[in-house]
Amino acid sequence: MKDVSVEDLGTAVVQAVLERTEIAPHAIDDVLFAQSYANSETPCIGRWLALNAGLPIDIPGLQIDRRCGGGLQAIVTAAMMVETGAADVVLAGGVESMSRIEYYSTDMRWGARAGTVKLHDRLDRGRERAQPEARFGRISGLIETAENLARDFAISREEADEFAVNSHKKAAAAWAQGKFEDETIALSVPQRRADPVSFRCDEGIRADTSVAALGRLNPIIHGGTVTAANSSQQNDAAAACLVVAEDKLDQLGLEPMAYLRGWTAVGCDPSRMGIGPVRAVEKLFEKTKLGFDDMDLVELNEAFAAQALACLKSWAWNDPARLNVNGSGISLGHPIGATGARIMTTLLHELKRREGRYGLETMCVAGGQGMAAIFERAI
Known about the structure:
Residues 2-247 form the Thiolase N-terminal domain. With 379 residues, the chain is of the alpha/beta class.
């Protein structure tokens, strides 16, 4: 989808929400969208998408960035707006076109006196500069943070590869069983010398992979555990939903899928950013008086296999029957700003199929944060 712009990705899901809910566009009070790698091509992405999707001009929009947790933050911020009475209906979600993240220069505003002008890769630069170097020292990127956790928790390369293989097998089975059909839309992808292609199914899933096959890959850092195959994929995606005041549901002819029971965000050491979900979930359980035994499903975003395994070991909890049952970042990808909204969508659909009550969503965040939320299925 490298030729599909972020505005087209986001507009497609905004229009799909309008079509599927049949809500009158003028009933929407605000549009909140996360985007972690924003630029001036589509500034203030929430407002931009509202206009591009044909919503009334008087509907405002907002851009949100909590990096990997941005999509979830858009949803909980929308919920807070509704809870305070500031809005009754908010369209919330996230979008990221990682294929089109640009290069940029900080040398050109006042002109370069002589010599070479440096271009930065915004994608890599965002990972390298996720924390102040003066305080924490140089952290080469997120791979280094995952390797730190692999050492801290004695996670082997084989453990990481086995975790990755299971993610792919679960995602492949979910697609084959049609589990994603109700929560996805096809995109029309333009071709240079041919008719547009209808893009419907994730292309990064490897149903036939094995621990032996993954074991043949070289680690990204010499002597480490992290490879391209046991890390999350870089993806282009968008996801969106409606967050609505409960007393407006009947008036708008809407049936809720779930309620936001509680949420948290915490900070942690940037050099071990992947451990962020541990404290975020613990804090959330303290606030809600719930625990893993109450959760019918758990979605822990797979930024890296080593990172996810470190969290599971810290919790002393790992139930494959409830954890990432349809795959996660390693198999489905991690389109940064969209991931939180995508995970929630998959979680709610699976809760409905299982007739479960509570679902937990949690993720680590670049720069040293963790985020978590509990959703309760509407019955």
